[in-house]
Amino acid sequence: MRVILDCDPGIDDTYAIIWLTAAAHAGLLELDCLTTTSGNTHAEQCARNAAWVLSLCGLPIVPVAAGCPEPLVCELTTTPETHGETGLGYATAPEREVARDWDTLWCDAIERGTDDLYLVVTGPMTNLAAFAEAHPEHYAELKHITVMGGAVNYPGNTTPSAEWNFWVDPHAAAEVFATTPVPITLCSLGVTERMLLTPERLERCVGALGPLGVAKQLPEITRFYFEFHEEVGEGYRAQIHDLLAVLIGLGFVEHSGRVTTVDVEADSPLMRGTSVADLRGIWGREPNARLVTEADVEAAWGWFDWACEVHAKVAAGDAELTQLRHRRAED
């Protein structure tokens, strides 16, 4: 299994990267590349954040590149009130040069084959829409696409009806659902908001990570997210959307859903970013999505606990990593 993560780190993206790097260390997947889009912060800053987290997780060799700097049509809006001024809460990634050959990385990965290639998008779909237009022949070869976004028959977190990723670039979301070569596995708010991180769980995770570099940064990264959720009435805890989307998209947690047709409103100021699923087939259009409706959240947290254990063993140079790899694979 090979993975492209298209993300906008982003606090919950950080948790997804921690898990993906552990799975790569354990030999469960190959992390082909990380690309970034403008969303939680600017694409270049997101790339710096992603590269830093990869380094803190012991995988600085994974290619990282910044993608599209602006949404397709709308003016860019970022979310410093949710993820901090630079996207990682109270932590700040060091300055570094940012590569911009993101579409080349995608093309190279696709040319290696797509049967085992999984694209997971945890930010706005700007890069995916731009890639579809610029490289239609490669786009058509994609076989596994997972997206975190949308609020389907569920309250939005940005407007009463819209989720953040779809609201930031609604034209990209609408374009992708109109052109996707395969049904997209859609992990919307109705499922991902159930992936709740508490201070107690964070403390256990940090302890389990041991000497790993990211363990020193994770409390400051996450504290900002806790405070944001408390300010908006969700309590002192955090919704880790992107980690759950990755685990669902790669098939590591049991989940169920409905094959349906999804569309996104792009041009109405009032309904911008609103996603609709035709659950009764009224439109009579071909399905373009598999809307996830249920997922085993406890199993997902179990996988994150496992990832922390893997990282601790890697950081300590522990020979038991091979045994741990086989044990989790059998589970």
UniProtKB/TrEMBL annotation:
Its EC number is 3.2.-.-. Keywords: Glycosidase, Hydrolase. The gene is rihA1. The keyword Cytoplasm does not apply. This is Pyrimidine-specific ribonucleoside hydrolase RihA. SUPFAM superfamilies: Nucleoside hydrolase. Residues 3-301 form the Inosine/uridine-preferring nucleoside hydrolase domain. The keyword Hydrolase applies. Transmembrane segments: none annotated.
